Amino acid sequence: MYMDRTFIPSTHKTTVYELGLNLWRDHVIRSSKIQQRLLNILLDLIHKERTGEVINRGLMRNIIKMLTDLGPSVYQEDFEKPFLEVSADFYRAESQEFIECSDCVRIT
């Protein structure tokens, strides 16, 4: 784009592409209606796959890529923290279930 090639470098302004990403992040991804719904959908997809269901991995990969393209803080704050919490809870429950179902033989 002409403006990005000539005007932006000489004035040290943000490119049109970056402005678009910023607007998308601030007005769509972080809107009160969408942010929580998007997180719930992602975490639900992860839970389904962990429990053996087939999910649309391409959809998930594209959403995660979009979050990382919007900046590391978007990925970390909007997805990674809740993902790690849900993962810890899931694997804590899985390990507890495994321990309860396993026969532990005492070796003396």
UniProtKB/TrEMBL annotation:
It comes from the Eukaryota. One of its GO terms (molecular function) is ubiquitin protein ligase binding. This is Cullin-3B. InterPro entries: Cullin (IPR045093), Cullin_N (IPR001373), Cullin_repeat-like_dom_sf (IPR016159). Residues 1-104 form the Cullin N-terminal domain. One of its GO terms (biological process) is ubiquitin-dependent protein catabolic process. Belongs to the cullin family.
